[in-house]
Amino acid sequence: MHASVASNTHTYIKKLAMSSSLPCSWATPILPSSSSSYSSSRVVYSNPTAPENAKPRRRFSCRAKNDNQNAESSNKFDRRDVLIGLGGLYGAASSINPLESSAAPIPQPELNTCRTATNINNGQPVPYSCCPPINNTIVDFRLPARPVVYERPAAHLVNAQYISRFNLALQRMRALPDSDPRSFTQQANVHCAYCNGAYTYPSGTGTQRLEIQVHNCWLFFPFHRWYLYFFERILGSLINDPTFRMPYWNWDSPDGMYTPSMYLNQRQYPALFNERRNQRNMTRPADLGYFGTDNNLTPSQTADNNCVIMYNEMIRNANLLEHFMGEPLRRGDPINPGAGTHEAGSHTAIHIWGGDPRQPSGEDLGNFYSAGRDPLFYAHHANVDRMWTIWRDRRGNLPRDFSDPDYLNTQFLFYNENRQLVRVRVGDCVDNLRLEYANQTRGVNIPWTSCRPRARVSGTRAAKKVEAPKLDAVEFPLKLDKITKVLVPRPKKSRSKEEKDKEVEVLLISGIEVDTEQFVKFDVFVDEEEDDFVNLAKAEYTGTFAQVPHKHETPLQIKTSRYLEVTQQLEDLGVDDDDEILVILVPRAGDITIGSIKIVYNPSN
Ligand code: C2O
């Protein structure tokens, strides 16, 4: 019986996932406190970015196709279907026990077995307690039957009135006692608890317990979406405005690349300020290729690099679901199976870029246990979350979400604005509109969709290849302590369009062994002839592996993989007929060992 309920739910969710977003409609302007509007079924766009003297709320349709975001939020969706479907989903949700079905998602955390996490301070482990208050009453999250959508504004476009309310909300959150699960301290600790080995589950053999880790796997986007969702609801409730939506830091566009000024103005907005940041970087544009040391790029070179990095992460290297989202992680699996393009790339770069080099472990942004203590973290992750939405909206007829019940039924626990402990499912968060928020699109460009990089035109590629060792002449595991070149053979070449549509060519780097306590990063280039590893705005730059430091109890050393799609890159470089490609690994930070490098062909989703 459980199985059939589960599979119905599964089909339903798949259907939802395959269909488009909820229909949007013309909004009725509302006041923030108007509860009748809040419970209507319309999409309402507040307008925190209007000039202050303008009318505070303006009608706006989300069908406007001013960019890719929301471009597909048309009315493909039958509302009746949604409502009937939701009823079925609720009914089913409470009767599914994922542990009883054949599927086995990572179990939900147990608060009463939460253990003290560990941090590293000057090479010494330091216990760091980040467990939430224990509560035995858990309620299941229910999606609103008639969602009303409010916009998260771009942080660089909000007006002073919005900033004051945001500052007030955070000030009140900071003023709550640490024992209150809504307090800023507890909210920051949520990240630590899920990322630094505080939550574990029984392994099934003996007394051994396995750690829960939400990074470097397919849980990355859903976990952080839920985390921000509750953080935002708590902020809203502290200023009696359930329509409050948090700002996103638009670092993917030159207009928003600098740290939004509201976070830097200690005098006016003390609750948004944080001392523990890289102060030098606070005056420069965010560097999405950052590796911990200054590369002396001009702001416009940084913008060029950023644009290509985004293009690669969001488009060129992100055709397969798992390559964007991260690799599957199920009950019993070793953690860190592999991060998606965006998690390993820009997301990690901003953490390291923003962390304070004067602190022992890059606090606050530069280490998982402390990242949530910086208000900038939430604006950063709101943009990461926005990237998930944009990526899904660009999928057309391709699958947007894993249909695997092990993914959809993974559960997390969060405290909500009423201090209730809520159990949520990954499957309920894949569509942000159903969680009643969208991201501002007006006045926000997405420049990187047109940043497909060009290759240099020169005749020396073949000559360069002669100098590099063949793959079988290189000894693995390979310690990556210097720039390393290797000729990697391609099992298939000159494939037809049909063959390429069926299978994506992937440069698979596996058995990557790193110490989780360190910031580690290496960049990958293919057929780069001039040994220029500073300029990333070119087709020769493939992608990166990088990881935000975090301490686990076990294992200290992790093994993970990086999947880099190269189909389009090899076409653009004009080397699609070559038998082998010149792969160049450029270590940027930390100690890294590599187990193997090869070309594989992954079936398209
Ligand atoms: Cu949970 Cu940006 O990290």
UniProtKB/TrEMBL annotation:
Any one GO biological process: pigment biosynthetic process
Molecular function (Gene Ontology), one example: metal ion binding
Cofactor(s), names only, from the UniProt record: Cu(2+)
Residue positions binding Cu cation A: 191, 215, 224
Pfam family, one: Tyrosinase
Keywords of this entry: Copper, Disulfide bond, Metal-binding, Oxidoreductase, Thioether bond
PROSITE patterns linked: TYROSINASE_1, TYROSINASE_2
Record location of the 2'-(S-cysteinyl)-histidine (Cys-His) cross-link: 195-215
Region Disordered, annotated ranges: 32-58
Cofactor note: Binds 2 copper ions per subunit.
Bias (Low complexity) ranges: 33-46
Superkingdom to which the source organism belongs: Eukaryota
Protein residues bound to Cu cation B: 347, 351, 381
Organism: Sesamum angolense
Keyword hit for Lipoprotein: no
Transmembrane segments: none
Domain Tyrosinase copper-binding: 215-232, 374-385
Gene3D superfamilies per the UniProt record, alphabetical: Di-copper center containing domain from catechol oxidase (1.10.1280.10)
Disulfide bond residue pairs: 114-131, 130-192
Family: Belongs to the tyrosinase family.
UniProt protein name: Polyphenol oxidase II, chloroplastic
